[in-house]
Amino acid sequence: MINYTFGKKYSLKSKIEIDRLFESGNRVSSYPFTVFFKESNDESGITPFKIVFSAPKRTFRKAVKRNRIKRIMRESIRLNKNKLEDYLNTQNKRVNLFLIYSASEEIEHSVLNKKTVKLFDKIIKHLDVQKN
Question: Is 90 exceeded by the pLDDT of residue 130?
């Protein structure tokens, strides 16, 4: 049975970890997303990845619009997270992610779901290259 839950345990809240993402993490772009990610030393094993969502204030001036974009991103990740989770569990890895919405307009849910799968493929490919 596939688990589609996406609660607080997936949230990355540590300012130190977020700063490390930007200092020494890897960057992957897949329109409409830009993601910074870095392997984590978190041994708690609660979740294979922790994530932060961001929509730029420069592009989306109103907080209502930014919050809607982040809500749509969260939903897209929730529905497609199993691909990334399965890979990370088999490789016994933990990853921190900072996901930035880089498009200038809101994109439909169906298109965003496809883009999320593509993004996860790129992240997995990048992690495989690092491993070897």
Answer: no
DSSP state of 60: -
Token output for 130:
């690092």
The contacts of residue 128 (CB under 8 Å, 6+ apart) are none
Token pair for residue 92?
């016994």
pLDDT in tens, 4-58: 889 899 999 999 999 999 999 999 999 999 999 999 887 777 899 999 999 999 9
**How many CB atoms sit inside 10 A of residue 70's CB?**
17
Residue 53's contacts (CB-CB under 8 Å, 6 or more residues apart) are 70, 73, 74, 99, 101
CA distances from 25 to 18, 19, 82, 126, 127 (A): 10, 9, 22, 12, 12
Record the tokens describing residue 9, joined without a space: 């345990």
Average pLDDT of the segment spanning 52-79: 96
Q: Which domains does the chain have, with CATH numbers?
A: 8-131 (3.30.230.10)
Q: How many CB atoms lie within 10 A of CB 84?
A: 23
